[in-house]
Design a protein that fits this description.
The chain is mainly beta. Keywords: Signal.
Length: 721
């Protein structure tokens, strides 16, 4: 029992000693040094109030003397003491005592010149500060004002007030006034400036570092806004602030406000989060390079943060559309992540292994196309590599460690390309698209124009000079469907017994009836040809400038008249002008939503988008050139040859001078390139094919586009899927 009592007493004693020791530590931790940092003013008459700043000033009874004469202490805190210059004091040192220690505050001069207060006490260059005091007027010379030793321009003066402008690069320091050889030093002025921000672009959530000087020590005392939208300040470190770009920000200047003084800095531009179009390769070894294509990347490399399976990768080069990245060690398998100025986007999954595919050349084609696969880790023995196109095995023609030359299989479909070697499998960064151009026939005449396709894939093509319509089968067999070559006239009948004038355009309905717009000696006419070749009149007596024709889903026909626009022809024969501007005879198109597309001038790289349901009119394109983008920024060549709705209700555009097939997405208003060809005559993948001229276009139920190419006397087929 005695031992237990002894142990308990010893334990309590140890606890008590621990508590005492902790209290001692707390007391030591809270000790504030007794020191003076500044005082102002340093001159004035008896009764002038002097402010002393520092720390530990309230520790003990404050006793202050001016050259030995005690002064009245008016207020005391730990960091500020206010004292009145004594009546019988003399110029000399100010001594501060707290009962146990004494400090020399500085020198005080009894004179009429004195600075009592400045306002504002902070701000950027150009700030006008008011200096309140006494003795500022003089008959000899005007008062001089210095801020941190640099001369400031005095804009107004009286005996008790001065107004001065803060000079450029003044820096922080005391305000000094000189009058008639007298000098008075007042309180410090906090000079503030924003010298730069990084990054200068981004969006909501972007961490922005602001460089400058004169920031408040507490984060909450620095008010930052992005073009008027307040942001959160998360960090103050010397001459830097770190802020988070707020929601709802807009492009414009960034500003910092401290004690009511606003300092405007550089502009911050709002950019959308990045987007990824392509990551290549999707597998490979550490140390290899990865290409990331997309948009809205930063051109400053370190503003693009790339990780693979959460492992940081080095960004070697950066443009707005492409990042070049060095693959890091230890990636394993995981997603590619990109954060541009704290705006993240997730990419595809990457696998660290020796086998990888970088690119396919070409990236599209038809069965039998030779394709070169570039990558790493291939076997030089062709038999040890297996290549598939969307699951169909391809023939390998040649093999090296970095390239495979293969031939696409007969049962080719659009999809990924995979290379398998032993247990490793690599997938292509993009799909191989079954796409390309083939010639149906090149036995047509030089004057082929309008073209349509029926439900069985048969093509009907007009001869614009010899006044007849040919039929071309899917196998390429050509025959005369209606009319007789060089037999001009206006005669209904069957097949070659019918006679046509100059044929402007063709359109076909769901029952494979072909409608023909034509002009001749009797004016303009619209006729119908049944699948059996019987020709009848739909509307006659029209003006002789009837041009392009199209048809909506309700069975209404639309045709152009050069200077009167576009007319709608109802099944009962009633006509209605639905577009009152100039309309060329290039093929017009109409969507299922009654959006009408018209070429207004065949020599201008523009066309009209008329929304009939709302009467909204949009001008698509602006000037000669070649550029994808919005309807206002997209550029086309000098001639729009034909307009056609595809099966997904996008508008196809024959951009003749650029030898391109362009596409307008009606839901987004964006123009893209469906096929970029070149001048000449060649079949093959879309980047190898050549064409002479797109006179007209038609589309079948599979989405393949047929083109009449009079320069090559050919009917061509573009496979886009």
């Amino acid at each position: 029992m005695q031992k237990l009592t002894t142990y308990l007493f010893a334990g309590l004693l140890l606890c008590l000693m621990g508590i005492i020791q902790a209290c001692k530590k707390d007391k030591i931790a809270t000790v504030v040094p007794f020191e003076v940092k500044s005082y102002y003013p340093n001159s004035g008459n008896a009764g002038t109030l002097i402010t002393i700043t520092g720390s530990g000033l309230s520790d003990g009874k404050a006793s202050i003397a001016f050259n030995g004469t005690d002064a009245e202490v008016l207020s005391t805190t730990d960091s500020i003491v206010v004292v009145r210059a004594p009546e019988k004091g003399q110029s000399g040192s100010i001594t501060f005592s707290n009962g146990s220690k004494s400090l020399i505050v500085g020198e005080y001069t009894y004179q009429k010149l004195s600075i009592q207060k400045i306002y504002p006490a902070n701000g950027p260059a150009g700030t006008q500060i008011r200096i309140i005091g006494a003795g500022f007027s003089s008959l000899k010379a005007p008062a001089e004002v210095l801020i941190n030793g640099k001369a400031a321009t005095v804009v107004s003066a009286s005996d008790t007030s001065l107004m001065a402008t803060v000079p450029e690069a003044a820096g922080s320091g005391a305000v000094t006034v000189k009058v008639d050889g007298m000098v008075s030093v007042g309180q410090p002025f906090q000079y503030q400036t924003v010298s730069g921000i990084k990054p200068v672009t981004g969006g909501k959530g972007t961490r922005v570092t602001i460089s400058g000087e004169g920031f408040a020590a507490l984060a909450a005392n620095n008010v930052v806004d992005f073009n008027g939208t307040k942001a959160e300040v998360t960090e103050v470190a010397g001459n830097k602030l770190v802020v988070i770009a707020p929601e709802g920000l807009t492009s414009g200047p960034l500003a910092v406000t401290i004690n009511g003084q606003k300092i405007v800095g550089p502009a911050f531009t709002v950019e959308p989060p990045p987007s990824i179009r392509l990551v290549s390769p999707l597998s490979g070894p550490a140390g290899a390079e990865m290409i990331i294509d997309g948009k809205d990347f930063s051109t400053v490399a370190d503003e693009n943060v790339v990780t693979i399976n959460n492992i940081p990768a080095v960004v070697k080069a950066a443009t707005a559309l492409r990042l070049t990245v060095v693959l890091p060690i230890g990636m394993g398998k995981g997603p590619v992540m990109i954060s541009v100025n704290d705006q993240p986007v997730k990419g595809p999954e990457f696998t660290e292994q020796s086998l990888g595919i970088q690119k396919l050349e070409p990236s599209n084609g038809l069965a039998g196309t030779k394709v070169v696969i570039t990558g790493t880790g291939f076997s030089v023995n062709p038999a040890e590599n297996e290549v598939t196109f969307n699951g169909a095995v391809a023939q390998i023609l040649k093999a090296t460690e970095t390239t495979l030359e293969v031939m696409t299989p007969a049962n080719l479909t659009t999809g990924p390309v995979k290379v398998k070697r032993a247990a490793l499998v690599a997938e292509s960064p993009t799909t191989f698209n079954r796409a390309g151009m083939v010639t149906i026939t090149n036995q047509m005449g030089p004057f082929i124009g309008a073209i349509v396709v029926d439900n069985q894939g048969n093509l009907f093509v007009s001869n614009t000079r010899e006044n007849y319509i040919s039929k071309v089968t899917p196998a390429g067999d050509v025959s005369i469907f209606a009319g007789e070559p060089n037999a001009n006239g206006f005669v209904n009948g069957n097949g070659r017994n019918a006679r046509f004038g100059s044929i402007s355009s063709l359109v076909i309905d769901e029952s494979n009836n072909v409608y023909v717009s034509e002009v001749g000696a009797g004016g303009g006419t619209i006729r119908r040809i049944t699948p059996q070749g019987d020709v009848t009149t739909v509307k006659s007596g029209l003006p002789n400038d009837v041009g392009s024709i199209t048809r909506d889903k309700k069975g209404n026909l639309y045709y152009t008249q050069l200077y009167r626009g576009v007319f709608r022809l109802y099944p009962d024969g009633v006509l209605e002008n639905v577009f009152g501007r100039t309309a060329e005879d290039s093929r017009i198109a109409i969507s299922n939503n009654n959006d009408l597309f018209i070429v207004g001038d065949k020599y201008e790289p523009t066309f009209y988008w008329q929304q009939l349901n709302s009467a909204k009119l949009t001008w698509v394109g602006s000037s000669n050139g070649y550029q994808d983008g919005s309807v206002s920024s997209a550029l086309f060549g000098g001639t729009i040859g034909s307009l056609l709705m595809d099966n997904e209700q996008n508008l196809l555009i024959a951009d003749n001078h650029n030898y391109a097939l362009r596409k307008l997405d009606l839901s987004t208003g964006q123009v893209s390139t469906a096929a970029k060809l070149s001048k000449g005559f060649a079949d093959g993948s879309l980047d190898q094919a050549k064409i002479g001229l797109i006179a007209d276009m038609a589309i079948d139920k599979e989405g393949s586009v047929y083109i009449s190419d009079p320069n090559n006397r050919a009917i061509r087929k573009i496979v886009l899927k």
